[in-house]
Structure formats: C-alpha cells, structure tokens
Amino acid sequence: MKDTLFSAPIEKLGDFTFDESVAEVFPDMIQRSVPGYSNIITAIGMLAARFVTPHSNVYDLGCSRGAGILSMRRHIQVEGVQIIGVDNSAPMVERCRHHLSAFHSTTPVEILCDDIRCIEIKNASMVVLNFTLQFLPPDDRLALLQKIYQGLEPNGVLVLSEKFTFTDEHINTLLIDLHHTFKRANGYSELEVSQKRTALENVMRTDSIATHKQRLEQAGFSQVELWFQCFNFGSMVAIKSNNSPL
Ligand SMILES: C[S@@+](CC[C@H](N)C(=O)[O-])C[C@H]1O[C@@H](n2cnc3c(N)ncnc32)[C@H](O)[C@@H]1O
Ligand SMILES: O=C(O)C(=O)C[C@]1(C(=O)O)C=C[C@@H](O)C=C1
Fold it and tell me: Ranges for the Methyltransferase domain (predicted)?
C-alpha cells in the first residue's frame, strides 16, 4: 500500500511511531525513503550465506515486516539454524508473522513482540540492526551492542544500518539535501518530506559514522567497517574476532 501518511497538512504533528498506519504502508515507506534499502536487504542475505553457521541463532532486531529475515532465510543453507526476529510494534509483528508464513522454508523463524533491550542473545552467528539502533535512546545504545557482542560466537557478524549525521556542517546539509531530492524523486511532496522530518525529530537521534565505530569498538568489536553508503544512509559490519577473550 502507498504511503500517503504525511501528504495532507497535519495540524498537531505528533512524534513518529510504528503504529498501525505506519505498519500498513511500511514496505513502500522504507523503499521510497531510504536510499540503497534494497541493496542492503540483498547484502544481508549474502552475508548470511557466509556467516551463518550450523546450529546457531540468527537475530533481526527491529525486524518490522520481516524483509531482512526473508533475505537471510533464503540464503541459509546450513542445518539447525533458528532465526529470531524481534519488534516491539504489535502491528508490525502481526504483519511480519503473516508475511513469513506465506513462504516455505526448512529454517524455523520465531517472531517476538518485545523490546530489543530485554531479550536474551545467545549462540549467535549473525545479528542485524537494520535502521533500528537510531530509535533507541542514545544512552541505551552501548549496552545493547555489548549484549550483542557477548551473545555472538567468534567470527559472528553484526550488520548495523543507520541514517548518519556528519560533523562538517556543509557536508551534513548537502547529504540531507540530496536525501530530500531522492525522496522528491520517489514521489514525496515538499510537505510530506518536511512533516515527516518534524515527526522524526524527537524520536530518531542519529550519530556520526565515527561515533558508531567508536561505540562498536567499545562494545568489544575489533573489526568494524562501513561497507555501504548512499548520501546520509549507510551500513556497517562488525565482526567478533576469532581470538576474542570473551
Ligand atoms: C526503521 S524500522 C526497521 C526496518 C527493518 N529492519 C527492515 O529492514 O525492514 C525500525 C523498527 O524497529 C522497531 N523498534 C524500535 N525500537 C524498538 C525497541 N526498543 N525494541 C524492539 N523494536 C523496536 C520499530 O517498531 C520498527 O519496526
Ligand atoms: O524518511 C526519512 O526521512 C527517514 O529518515 C527514513 C526512515 C529511517 O531511516 O528509518 C525513518 C522512518 C521510517 O521507518 C523509514 C525510514
């Protein structure tokens, strides 16, 4: 379904939430809003083919309607893998479960309606945070990454995709502007772009690439790299090294 949520003037613009109306249009919204989204989803599948090991767990934290899970599941060839998707939006979880059940697979998937800060992560070969960390309060981000690091097995991978801010004001303005041009090219009006931006202001706090790298390293990851960037959006991989002390 087409996203027209911000197309008419909204008198009292509240904070953006992943409610019923957002969940309904979400695939169209994210596809038209995030440059490179499809490439990232495809690459998550390619990474799953390389990193997922037999008899391990795979987590998609903030899985929304399950695009990342489907991509991983299609590429997992090893046996005994359990995929766990987590999202605290009930309307997203409902659609995710329904969508996944339409495809046959031998790899089981469990979708939990829960807060990613509360779940246990263990025996993981791959963890995905695809545009989710930016919605956590900044003070909670390090603890989540530490929990992920501890739950990963050696050689396990974390994929972290985010919208970024840039410390150079000129570059920051340029990349935000290019993102808005991208959204306009995808059919969003000036009003839609600006109302969504205001709605996101209090709920989505973005970090710089340098902040993400530092935080990942602080959490324990020694191998961290940005593998994709388009304008102010991108995706990083962080690998738990083989000779990790933890
Ligand atoms: C931008 S969407 C993620 C998109 C999705 N990963 C994909 O690739 O299609 C962010 C998701 O994170 C979920 N979310 C945000 N904070 C959360 C939290 N603390 N616990 C669980 N889910 C959360 C939201 O409900 C939303 O579905
Ligand atoms: O639409 C925007 O401007 C965004 O920042 C995109 C973004 C995201 O980065 O997660 C914000 C909220 C929606 O979940 C989909 C995409």
Answer: 58-156
E runs forming strands in 164-222: none
**Which residue segments constitute the domains of the chain, with CATH numbers given?**
37-129+136-166+203-240 (3.40.50.150)
Residues within the annotated binding site for S-adenosyl-L-methionine? 37, 62-64, 87-88, 115-116, 130, 197
- Sequence-separated contacts (24+) of 19-24 with Cβ below 8 Å: 19/89, 19/91, 20/91, 22/91, 23/64, 23/65, 23/89, 23/91, 23/92, 23/94, 23/95, 24/91, 24/95
State the DSSP H helix or E strand holding residue 92, giving kind and residue range, or none if neither: helix 90-100
Residue 32: HSE in the Cβ half-sphere, 13 Å Cα cutoff: 19
User: How far does the centroid of ligand 2 lie from the alpha carbon of residue 30, in Å?
Assistant: 6
- Over the chain (246 residues), the average pLDDT of each successive run of 10 is 93 91 96 98 98 98 98 97 98 97 94 98 98 98 98 98 98 97 96 93 96 98 98 98 72
Asked if this assembly's ipTM is beyond 0.95, the reply is yes
Supply 122's token pair.
């263990």
Is residue 131 within 6 Å of ligand 2 at its C-beta? yes
In the structure encoding, which two tokens stand for residue 7, read together? 């197309």
| Pair 38, 11: CB distance under 8 Å | no
Place of tokens 């993981």: 124
